[in-house]
Amino acid sequence: MSTGNFIKDIINEDIRTGRWYGRVATRFPPEPNGFLHIGHAKSICLNFGIAEQYSGICNLRFDDTNPVKEEQKYIDSIKEDVSWLGFDWKDREYYASDYFGRMYECAVKLIKKGKAYVDDLSQEKIKEFRGTFTEPGKKSPFRDRGTEENLELFEKMKNGEFKDGEKVLRAKIEMTSPNLNMRDPVMYRILHTAHPRTGNEWCIYPMYDFAHCLEDSIEEITHSICTLEFEDHRPLYDWFLEELGLHHPQQIEFARLNISYNVLSKRKLGLLVSEKKVEGWDDPRMPTISGLRRRGYTAASIRDFASRIGVAKANSTVDTALLEHCIREELNKTADRVFAVLDPLKIIITNYPEDKSEYFEVENNPEDSASGTRELKFGREIYIEREDFMEAPPKKFFRLAPGRESRLKSAYYIKCNEVVKDSSGSIKELRCTYDPESRGGDTPDRRKVSGTLHWICAPGAVNITVRQYDRLFTRENPDEAEDFRLCINPDSLAVNKECMAESSLKDIEPGKRVQFFRHGYYIADIKDSKKGKPVFNRIVSLKDTWAKIVKKEGS
Ligand code: ATP
Ligand code: MG
Predict the structure, then answer these.
(1) 462 alpha carbon, distance to own chain's centre
(2) Counting ligands in written order, which one lies closest to the CA of residue 221?
(3) Residue 555: what pLDDT?
(4) How many helices (H) and strands (E) would you count in the chain?
(5) Tens digits of per-residue pLDDT, 278-292?
(6) Residue of 64, 89, 227, 484 to mutate, ligand 1, most atoms within 8 A of C-beta
(7) pTM for this structure?
(8) What share of the chain is helix, strand, coil (3-state, %, to 5)?
(9) Beta strands in 96-167 (DSSP E)
């Protein structure tokens, strides 16, 4: 994994040559048309991280030029997510819509220079006239309108005298350019749609390619960092800013993040939400920042992930196992270990007195000496995990079975003597005896036993709901499927309401993360968990496939 950063090399060189007088100004420019995802997190960490490192500034700029798709709720969620990730834009919260007046003036200036014209061609015709990679484009019959006529028509467009789609303003560049973005791109379109911020003030809106470079220029951005697909747009940005004689940031492209078994596109994620394939933008299976937060990821683990993947010039796909590795590594150090039995099987310890109970002191987290200890209750009736017992065990099963002895973690050795079944033949409970000599989990003779099991004392156990999450997609690259929705994993969520946990979890604070011993890391859900009625989300299992991959590669 490379953390080398060619972007920093460029900035270092600019500082050395005094290109921007040592100034570093970046921005994170989301379009408020959906919730942010982990790909945006990469861009946020990069832009704010660079500003931090070079004592520069990073603006939060909403690129709100398309009122048809943009909403206030997305603006609010974006602000919440950027803050939660740990970044502060201070008072630099900007909106492209605040510059609509200046953008309009720039368009007028280009018309006056003979560099822009009003076109009456329909959207379909413009597309047809544009040509292809192999065929040059054709000039519009309206291309050679006089300046006065263009100015008059553009003003009428602004004043609402035409219907949507009736006219557009285009840059007059070169219809035969090998770069399709240079073939007289549309700068303004008519949209009789109210804007969340400017209301009905405008009925013409600038296109992304015209607006974006002006936004960067107006804010005096020095390094405009964007994803690779904008490399072919750079000549157009250069053209606009040069023709207008404006401040001209350096655009630097990097590869966008892709993660296996995920889709990272607001549009696609929005479809999962609107078609109710998931419970919302913050569904814990979603790769959105809000989904990851609800799933139990910490901001630090996401920042760690962003720094490990680094930035590159070539597109690639990152293994989801790396993201999981980052949170697992953190939680291994910080999460208390607790006992929870997900599929309870009752055990009666026949030689343990009926009226007796006792407590064992157990460590909260062996990885953290400051985490302290707690008392675990033990008595005659306990639960173990159903899968920790087999009536007719195969060779490699090293847990409890008839006639066998197993260790109850931190408590006693028990031996299974009898299997009690119900009328349908399924196992109802086990009858075991314990060895009083093994108190604390070991005997003086330290004899070998069949596995170490977690357990819960039945009286005082808390009923909990546990949601096991799996990958949302069955295919490594759902974008390659004919329709990404066809490879949604039908088993991405399993809810179990019959789980039992130790009494310390009864009043767990929503948002707190723990390790269920032998199972994985879990969080008490921020929305659904209540004191007395805990609901847990599985963040990640204990098995670290990433560590295995790295070990195998010997890196
Ligand atoms: P989406 O396709 O998900 O809507 P977008 O690029 O259209 O993404 P914007 O709101 O325009 O979304 O993105 C804001 C910033 O986040 C842009 O600078 C963009 O380059 C960056 N970004 C978006 N997706 C990724 C990604 N997968 N990896 C890295 N950066 C990304
Ligand atoms: Mg976009």
Answers:
(1) 32
(2) 1
(3) 52
(4) 13, 27
(5) 999 999 999 999 999
(6) 227
(7) 0.95
(8) 30, 25, 40
(9) 116-119
pLDDT tops 60 at residue 62:
yes
Per residue in 102-138, pLDDT (tens digit) is 999 999 999 999 999 999 999 999 999 999 999 999 9
Residue 87 near residue 79 (C-beta atoms within 8 A): no
Question: What residue owns the CA closest to ligand 1's atom 18?
Answer: 226
Which domains does the chain show, CATH number per domain?
6-254 (3.40.50.620), 266-336+464-554 (2.40.240.10), 340-454 (2.40.240.10)
Residues lining ligand 1, judged by CB closer than 6 Å?
Answer: 29-31, 39-40, 42-43, 226-227, 256-257, 264-267
Find, among 411, 457, 418, 401, the residue nearest to 434 by Cα.
Answer: 411
Number of Cβ atoms within 10 Å of the Cβ of 294:
24
- Residue 262 has φ and ψ, to the nearest 5°, of -140, 160
Supply the pLDDT for residue 4. Answer: 55
**CA of 47, closest atom in ligand 1:** 18
Q: Which ligand has the shortest distance to the CA of 33?
A: 1
The answer to whether residue 391 scores a pLDDT higher than 60 is yes
Asked if the model's pLDDT at residue 253 lies above 80, the reply is: yes
Q: How high is the pLDDT of residue 548? A: 81
Which structure tokens are listed for 512? 């707190």
132 CA from centroid of ligand 1 (Å): 26
State the Cα–Cα distance between residues 409 and 387, nearest whole angstrom: 16
* Residue bearing the CA closest to ligand 1, atom 13: 30
And the tokens for 525? 């859900």
Residue 449 burial (CB count, 10 A): 23
Mutate which of 40, 66, 479 for ligand 1? The one with the most ligand atoms within 8 Å of its CB, which is 40
Please enumerate in sequence order all residues whose Cβ is within 8 A of that of 528, keeping only pairs 6 or more positions apart, or say none: 535
